[in-house]
C-alpha cells in the first residue's frame, strides 16, 4: 500500500547550496529582464547604440553648461 513518507533507507535528493540558488535566481532574473526589454524590438543592437549616443549627448550638455548668451525673450 502507498505511504506518504519516503522509506527510511532512502535519502532526500541533495539541495543546492544557498550561493548556487542565488546565482541561478540572478541569472534567471537577468534573462527575464533582457527578454522583457527586447520584446517587440527587431534590432536590439541599434536601440542600444542610440541609447548610448543619447546618454553621451546628455553628458556633453551637462558638462558644457548653459549657453553663453543665456535665454532670450522676444515679445511680439
From TrEMBL:
Residues 18-37 have a biased composition (Basic and acidic residues). One of its GO terms (biological process) is negative regulation of retrograde protein transport, ER to cytosol. Residues 1-76 are annotated as: Disordered. One of its GO terms (molecular function) is ATPase binding. Keywords: Lipoprotein, Myristate, Palmitate. One of its GO terms (cellular component) is endoplasmic reticulum membrane. This is Small VCP/p97-interacting protein isoform X2. It comes from Mesocricetus auratus (Golden hamster).
